[in-house]
Automatic annotation (TrEMBL), chain B:
It holds the Pfam family DUF3823_C. This is DUF3823 domain-containing protein. Coiled coil: none annotated. It comes from the Bacteria. InterPro entries: DUF3823_C (IPR041186), DUF3823_N (IPR024278). Residues 32-119, 123-230 form the DUF3823 domain. It comes from Pedobacter panaciterrae. The lineage of its organism: Bacteria, Pseudomonadati, Bacteroidota, Sphingobacteriia, Sphingobacteriales.
């Protein structure tokens, strides 16, 4: 009886089984754990990003060869064609809600966190929110801008937020990044953004907006979404965005620099992607085996011959290599040049090219890339005439495996090329960028690579600045900046500059960094470049009677066709979201 | 054990007998919609496999319906016999014809028919295919029913296949795509010589039958092509 009377005095106690805002935002550790969730969801197109499926954060997302490079002609391989044009229905409003919670809660806890900490964290939150919206804007154009924490109990009409115009979306991203730049500190923990990351992302985002305004006004798909401003920016806004991109890029001057610590230009360019102390790194994403986040770049970009367990499927094309100019494989009379050794081909090539792509004759972990497509018992005539012949009337000897010999000599190399499977090169090249050659073979396995992804690096900011400068008519600054990049790369500096040179420089410097797909889109040239496009490889052959090697430029051995529908310049708003929110209509043109 | 099994069986029986008391009484997709894409210049619009579509939006089901499309057949007809009965907004799209902007509202039921009239961008006239030895020579001229405002003419090319189904995406590359001729001109800037095309396709395989047509591709939203009629070619054996 006594127990009954005295019980239940207090019912209004905080629940002990859930985290209340006080617990999370009352301490720096709590905020950090909340931030970790937001950072983890960021749409960073890293090693593990699959452009047809989305951002991968699992422990066994190892198929790193499914990259956007493989549909744009930087590489060829796993995709049958433009399999990524329609996107994967990216719609991160759950993550954006988390950022909005952060922005709403932080000011309430200034007493515990300290005002300066709160300001810096708020700046970081604005950067993160901009990053998410950038992931949306570059896919869909205009999207609903949600800056408050919506109440799930609110009337449906409030929850079904209207699409904002594309211009408003990019302006919002720019404004958020301005806040990020103003409020964040100069430095931050590795893997988190500082104020310069905000400026760097702004230079990228505003350059996208500027080019979409300029080139999207000339090459577009008509439709209601365009007429109402949801997909498309007026052309007269282009220069404003280019100016913003240029100014943002300038903010980094003096605070970051290109990596130039090794006097060997090839090794220097290799190192810049692997050395954590690089002064070029602005914003990186880290991986670790212990936390189950490691990636598989080393195991999926080099052949099994040089790894402990691997499968490669995407290979650099000769078309990419020819961004650096034609290779010296043909004599002036059209006959293939004879080489004593495959490695001779690399003599005199630009260090950056050799550090980006593994050529026939290069070495990795003590083993040689012995690419050889086949053997010619003897070879006469020109390269062009030989390649033009139907395959069954060519006099070469091919083989389905490495065990078959011709007069005691291997017909194909351990590293390909062959067409029996996808796991050896079909272009004559392998990717070198980001490959950690120092790893012993036995440790190169799936989910065992930990080198960080450099999401924002200073070289890209310089390229952003040069492109924006050129679009604004400031060729002098563009030339200076491009030559900084070319000097570091070991290339001959330019004496004059034009927009095509700048775009080509970007293609060389940022190869395989998941930028080119967006570049093709924002320049609105994807439907021209990828018009029934087929790409080439460089096939090494051994000429038996001469004991020499020759290289022939041939169609890559997958013989894939690439097309880009104009409607892909914008992805379709995901069908499920349209079903939930009719205010997202009109969908982008032609969907 | 036996008891357990019989209990499980009993439970399953109860579940099975108590479920499914509501019957789906909606009609199945038993309505159909068919018709022709008629060219304003006479005959049906010559299309390729799915190069034009009829877009349907069922407005009697939802205010914001997901669109569905009926691809056109090679002869410019279209048919879908598995549609739900209802009211639809319909419009032809995909080119290569001057775009229509006014959707038509149609009550689709069993056997609903409707013909759309469209104005093609380009007409291919005087198309001849003459075999000389193993070389096939194609000649044709282009005409535009409406010249002003025509999208840029990108290219023209032959399509050769060994079946009657020949067109974009249904052709033998070595006889088709590699004989593509780039044009990249506005219609107004094209000379009479530009509009009159001759293409030689060498090394046709002896003793085979081929189906040949040509197309002209324009830089509209769909990068669509206008096609010629199809000519049958028998290459004599050696």
């Amino acid at each position: 009886m006594g127990a009954l009377v005295t019980s239940c005095q207090k019912l209004d106690i905080p629940p002990t089984n859930i985290f209340t805002p006080d617990i999370i935002f009352g301490s720096e550790a709590g905020v950090k754990s909340f931030l970790a969730t937001i950072y983890r969801g960021l749409p960073i197109e890293d090693f593990k990003y699959r452009p047809d499926q989305g951002f991968k954060t699992g422990g066994n997302d190892w198929e790193n060869f499914f990259n956007s490079a493989s549909v744009t002609g930087e590489e060829v391989g796993p995709f049958g064609g433009m399999d990524i044009g329609g996107g994967f229905g990216y719609w991160p409003y759950g993550d954006i809600r988390n950022v909005n919670i952060l922005i709403e809660e932080l000011p309430k806890h200034a007493d515990k966190l300290g005002q300066s900490n709160v300001d810096a964290l708020l700046g970081e939150a604005h950067f993160l929110r901009a990053y998410y919206y950038f992931g949306l804007a570059k896919r869909y154009g205009g999207v609903p801008i949600v800056t408050t924490v919506q109440d799930p109990g609110a009337p449906l009409s409030e929850l079904q937020v209207h699409r904002d115009k594309e211009e408003a979306t990019w302006d919002f991203i720019g404004a958020e990044l301005d806040l990020g730049y103003q409020m964040m500190n100069e430095t931050n923990e590795l893997g988190r953004a500082n104020k310069y990351a905000a400026a760097a992302l702004k230079s990228r985002a505003m350059l996208y907006a500027g080019t979409i305004a300029k080139y999207g006004s000339a090459n577009f798909v008509d439709g209601q979404a365009r007429a109402e401003g949801f997909a498309g920016i007026p052309a007269d806004k282009a220069n404003g965005y280019f100016t913003k991109a240029y100014d943002a890029a300038k903010l980094l001057e003096g605070h970051y620099s290109l990596y130039e610590k090794n006097s060997d230009k090839v090794q220097n360019y290799v190192d810049l992607f692997l050395k954590s102390e690089s002064p070029e790194n602005i914003f990186v994403k880290q991986y670790s085996i212990i936390s189950g986040t490691a990636h598989s770049w080393d195991a999926t970009m080099s052949p099994r011959y040089m790894t402990a367990n691997a499968l490669t499927r995407s290979y650099p094309t000769l078309d990419l290599v020819q961004r650096w100019g034609n290779l010296p494989v043909t004599n002036s009379d059209g006959t293939p040049k004879r080489f004593n050794d495959r490695a001779e081909l690399m003599q005199g090539l630009e260090p950056r090219l050799l550090a980006t792509v593994y050529f026939p004759g290069a070495t990795l972990r003590g083993l040689t890339f012995d690419m050889q497509r086949g053997i010619y018992p003897s070879f006469s005539g020109t390269a062009a005439a030989e390649v033009a012949k139907p395959a069954n009337s060519r006099s070469y000897i091919l083989s389905g495996d490495t065990k078959t010999l011709y007069q005691g000599r291997m017909i194909i190399g351990f590293t390909g090329p062959w067409t029996g499977g996808d796991e050896l090169t079909r272009t004559g090249f392998y990717v070198r960028k980001y490959i950690d050659a120092a790893k012993p073979i036995s440790t190169v396995d799936l989910n065992r690579s930990e080198q960080p992804w450099i999401d924002l690096r200073y070289a890209e900011i310089l390229l952003n600045r040069a492109e924006a400068a050129m679009e604004l008519g400031n060729a002098g600054d563009a030339l200076t900046v491009i030559n900084m990049i070319r000097n570091r790369a070991g290339a001959t500096p330019y004496t004059s500059i034009d927009i095509d040179k700048i775009r080509n420089e970007r293609g060389m410097e940022l190869a395989f960094e998941n930028q080119y797909y967006w570049d093709l889109k924002r320049w609105r040239i994807a439907d021209v470049v990828l018009n029934n496009a087929r790409f080439k490889g460089l096939m090494p052959y051994y000429v038996f009677n001469e004991n020499k090697y020759i290289f022939l430029s041939e169609p890559e051995l997958f013989q894939r066709n690439y097309n880009f529908d104009k409607k892909f310049y914008y992805e379709p708003i995901p069908g499920g979201e349209l079903g939930k929110n009719p205010n997202l209509y009109p969908n982008n043109p032609n969907y | 054990m036996k008891k357990l099994i019989s209990r499980i069986l009993l439970g399953t029986t109860i579940l099975a007998s108590s479920a499914c008391t509501k019957i789906d009484n909606y009609d199945g997709p038993n309505a159909s919609f068919e018709g022709n894409l008629i060219s304003s210049e006479g005959g049906n619009l010559l299309t390729s496999q799915g190069s034009s579509q009829i877009r349907l939006e069922q407005i009697s089901w939802s205010a914001t319906p997901s669109p569905q499309e009926i691809p056109s057949k090679f002869d410019g007809t279209f048919k879908d016999s598995k549609l739900f009965k209802g009211t639809y907004k319909v419009i032809p799209k995909g080119g290569a014809f001057w775009p229509l902007y006014d959707t038509l509202t149609v009550d689709i039921n069993k056997g609903t028919k409707h013909d759309f009239t469209v104005t093609p961008y380009i007409l291919i006239k005087n198309f001849t295919a003459v075999l000389n030895g193993k070389t096939l020579t194609l000649k044709y001229t282009m005409e535009a029913p409406i010249g002003a405002g025509l999208p840029t003419i990108i290219e023209t090319q032959p399509y050769v296949n060994n079946t009657k189904l020949v067109g974009a995406g249904a052709s033998i590359r070595d006889f088709s795509d590699i004989y593509k001729k780039a044009i990249n001109k506005e219609w107004a800037d094209m000379t009479d010589a530009d509009k009159s095309v001759t293409i030689d396709i060498p090394d046709m395989l002896p003793g085979r039958k081929f189906f040949v047509r040509v197309g002209v591709r324009l830089n509209d939203s769909f990068k669509s092509s206008n096609f010629s009629e199809i000519i049958e070619i028998d290459v004599p054996a050696n």
